[in-house]
Amino acid sequence: MHINNTHEEKESLTKRKSTLGIRLFFIYLLSYAGFVAIGVFQYELLSIPVLGGLNLALAYGIGLILFAVVLGIVYNYYCSRYEDEADQTEETQKGGTA
Q: Which residues cross the membrane (predicted)?
């Protein structure tokens, strides 16, 4: 587990993670807004069968759930990379070898 030694390092890491989280949030927000917009302005479309007998409402809803899981995995992957980079930087600054 990475332990941040300096306040600046912790702030930098937190800022990178926060920025990534906000970007992924807005990507998901746009996807969800599309679902809501269809429901509000073209609700008839939601009853059209699109995937193996599922209507658009169910397919889109399941897709949103799966997309949220994928975004969570992406977030975890990049945050882990940020932590690893911080660990390597810390080791380099201490003069250790990785």
A: 20-41, 53-78
The secondary structure of residue 53, as a DSSP letter, is: T
DSSP 52: T
Question: What is the residue whose two structure tokens read 């993670």?
Answer: 17
pTM of the model as a whole: 0.80
- Give the 3-state secondary structure of residue 2: coil
pLDDT in tens, 43-75: 999 999 998 999 999 999 999 999 999 999 999
Buried b (16+ CB within 10 A) or exposed e, 61-92: eeeeeeeeeebeeebeeeeeebbeebeeebee
